[in-house]
UniProtKB/TrEMBL annotation:
It comes from Paraherbaspirillum soli. Keywords: Signal. Residues 1-21 form the signal peptide. This is OmpA-like domain-containing protein.
Length: 148
């Protein structure tokens, strides 16, 4: 009977581990039109998110920005936004490992993003387990086998 219960418990653990998702891996910053100022609400939100990401062991932090000349999001504005985010993250002790700028003008027909969406910058982090493929429950080490 104990073996059956152990088998059922292990099956549940394995199935829940494969469906596991990571909440809070992304943080959005909404900029006003033609602005590179990070609002105080966004700063507070980033500080809270940073604390959660450190608890999860965040190691790689990436920034995704949109460029769209037709919507007034020029290369210069994108650079100022990037610099503002990198400066804030450096102040929080976080090193940005990658910056991606998506040119929406060439992709406008495909994505159809609004100006509000293109004014949003996303910061993403990866916990170490995503590189080692060890996310989820880990088997216990040095545990005696179950005896009947």
């Amino acid at each position: 009977m104990k073996r059956i219960i152990c088998f059922i418990a292990m099956s549940i653990l394995i199935s829940s581990a494969s469906a596991m998702s990571f909440g809070g891996l992304e943080q959005d910053i909404q900029f006003d039109d033609n602005s590179s100022q990070i609002g105080s609400d966004d700063i507070r939100s980033i500080v809270d998110w940073k604390i959660r990401s450190v608890e999860m062991g965040g190691i790689d932090y990436e920034i995704f920005l949109y460029k769209d000349d037709q919507l007034g999001i020029s290369s210069n504005l994108v650079e100022r936004r990037r610099d503002a985010i990198v400066s804030l993250m450096n102040t929080l002790g976080i090193q940005i490992t990658k910056v991606v700028v998506v040119d929406q003008q060439s992709k406008r027909r495909e994505s159809g993003l609004s100006k509000k969406q293109t004014n949003t910058v996303t910061i993403i982090f990866q916990p170490p387990c995503t590189k080692t493929l060890s996310c989820g429950p880990q088997p216990a080490k040095n545990v005696d086998t179950i005896r009947e």
